[in-house]
Every structure is written in C-alpha cells, then in structure tokens.
Amino acid sequence: MSRLAICPGSFDPVTYGHLDIIERGAKIFDHVIVAVFNNQSKAPLFTVDERVALLEEATAHLPNVSVDTSNGLLIDYAREHNADAILRGLRAVSDFEYEMQITSMNRKLDDHIETFFMMTNNQYSFLSSSIVKEVAKYKANVSDLVPEPVEKALKKKY
Ligand code: COD
C-alpha cells in the first residue's frame, strides 16, 4: 500500500533544515507533498509563487516529492489528498508547545490522519527561515544555511 505524507509549512524561504526533514521523510513515505500554506501569524517576505518555485528547485533531485500550495485548512487538504500522515520537524522544546497545539486541533478535526515528528539534525537545530532572513538582511553569508537559488533570491529582496 502506497503511503502519502503532507509536509506543510510557510517555507519563507526554504532552508537546509526544511530540506533535511523533506529528504528524510521521502525515504520513509512513498510520496511526500510539500504544501505551502499561509501562517496567519507571520508576514511573509516571499510570495507563495516564489516560495513554491524555490522549493521546486530545492527538491528537484527527489523524484517522490512534489510541491503544492493551499489557502485552506491543513486538515482539509490532507483529507482531500487521502494523506496518511502530516510530517513536521521539531527543533527544540520551544517548538513542542506550538506543535502540540496544532496537532491536537488537527486530531480533533480528523482523528484518522497521524502527525509524524522528526527531530532536527543537530547541525540545523538553530536554523529557521526567520533567522536566515534576519542575517541576510545585514548581508551576512547564508550559503551554508539555504540552497543557492534561495541565497540569490534573498540578495534580490534585500
Ligand atoms: N530543523 C527541523 N525542522 C525544521 C527546521 C529545522 N531547522 N526548520 C523548520 N522546520 C520544520 C518546522 O518545525 C515545520 O514542521 C516545518 O519545518 C515547516 O516550518 P515553517 O516554519 O515553514 O512552517 P510553519 O510552522 O509556519 O507552518 C505552519 C502551518 C502553515 C503548517 C500552519 O500555520 C497551518 O497549518 N496553516 C494552515 C491553516 C490551518 O490549518 N490552521 C489550523 C492549524 S490547527
């Protein structure tokens, strides 16, 4: 039986931390859809189309990964696509409370879809899109934090 996971996020922009979770997830699940959603509590730097284009470049080497976007609820998206799981990454204890909140709400809305958490690779435990934008704004080198097309896109924005 073929197993599908949805890896949802803002991806504003995609970092090597996200990519690590996507790559590891793609080894476990038959197919992974990376889905770009708007997070109401964040003001995005990149448009949804820009985020999708950068994700497509960054995941081009993964044949069982596709990129999509949605304006709706994550759980509705997962249901519509007949997903088996929602795939999320965990960095630190500080992520836990937020993740528990959204997982509990998603489970209340549909208890058939499991959420899978993968611990960050130690190397990326400090890494977030916000921190990348913060340092890129001050022209610091971000080449070991994000794929090259993202680095270029950040240079254009700032
Ligand atoms: N190492 C490991 N994992 C990482 C790293 C790293 N360095 N950096 C990020 N991640 C993980 C995150 O933990 C997350 O799992 C994923 O990568 C994406 O991260 P972000 O920051 O791009 O995504 P978020 O947290 O902004 O995504 C929030 C959603 C968009 C999923 C959420 O807002 C949502 O579900 N929106 C749709 C509307 C909805 O359904 N709302 C109700 C939810 S209850």
From TrEMBL:
It is an enzyme of class 2 (transferase). The keyword Lyase does not apply. Keywords: ATP-binding, Coenzyme A biosynthesis, Cytoplasm, Magnesium, Nucleotide-binding, Nucleotidyltransferase, Transferase. InterPro entries: Cyt_trans-like, PPAT, Rossmann-like_a/b/a_fold. It is found in: Cytoplasm. Its cofactor is Mg(2+). Its EC number is 2.7.7.3. Substrate binds at residues 10, 42, 74, 88. Pathway: Cofactor biosynthesis; coenzyme A biosynthesis; CoA from (R)-pantothenate: step 4/5. It catalyses: (R)-4'-phosphopantetheine + ATP + H(+) = 3'-dephospho-CoA + diphosphate. Residues 6-134 form the Cytidyltransferase-like domain. NCBIfam families: coaD_prev_kdtB, cyt_tran_rel. HAMAP family: PPAT_bact (MF_00151). Belongs to the bacterial CoaD family. This is Phosphopantetheine adenylyltransferase. It comes from Lentibacillus salinarum.
